[in-house]
Amino acid sequence: AQTVTQSQPEMSVQEAETVTLSCTYDTSESNYYLFWYKQPPSRQMILVIRQEAYKQQNATENRFSVNFQKAAKSFSLKISDSQLGDTAMYFCAFMKQHGGSQGNLIFGKGTKLSVKP
Amino acid sequence: DSGVTQTPKHLITATGQRVTLRCSPRSGDLSVYWYQQSLDQGLQFLIQYYNGEERAKGNILERFSAQQFPDLHSELNLSSLELGDSALYFCASSMTSGRAYNEQFFGPGTRLTVL
Hints:
The structure holds two protein chains of two kinds. Chain A is built from no helices and twelve strands. By secondary structure, chain A is an all-beta fold. In chain A, the strands form three sheets. In chain A, strands 2, 5, 6, 10, 11 and 12 form a six-stranded mixed beta sheet that branches. In chain A, strands 3-9-8-7 form a four-stranded antiparallel beta sheet, with no helix packed on it. Chain B is built from no helices and eleven strands. Classes of the chains: A mainly beta, B mainly beta. Chains A and B meet through strand 6 and strand 11 of A and strand 4, strand 5 and strand 9 of B.
């Protein structure tokens, strides 16, 4: 079974600063996807960034980038130039790429990020 | 707006009762997923349907059931409700359930409160 662990329940950062959220996972699969989802106070689940395990290059989406270390099973999210609108819960998630149960997401417990003015 | 709709937005009911949550996927999406977000369990996958057939099951209780109809909307039925069933229930949809990556688009959720 796959597990996803987020060891930082809460974090805070000053506006315009950079913050890194940590995520580790456990799996015996070789092919999978990793995600970071954002859940603002509105409760809507928003996909922030996606990483395919077979790609060595780290994914980047504007101010959001990941550090994917496959051997270490680590997948951290870096938010640059933090904005007040980044205040939210952030969930790390895993999805198998092949075989049974492909498609459903396995989530970590989340990290509550507060961006302070 | 993700294009996934869920009704109702809020539901308050009593222990022992039965409720039905409804989800309409994005136009063209064949897969529907149900997730439960609670304080105790976090966000967990319940069940997936693809084009009317059950495709995968997660930590779904026997008191819970779901189905996907020919028009592709889905319903999650929760019966003999307990206080611990209070949670936010999300529906998500994606285009296919194949080997290629298909983004899951989440609905706004249904907040269930069991008193």
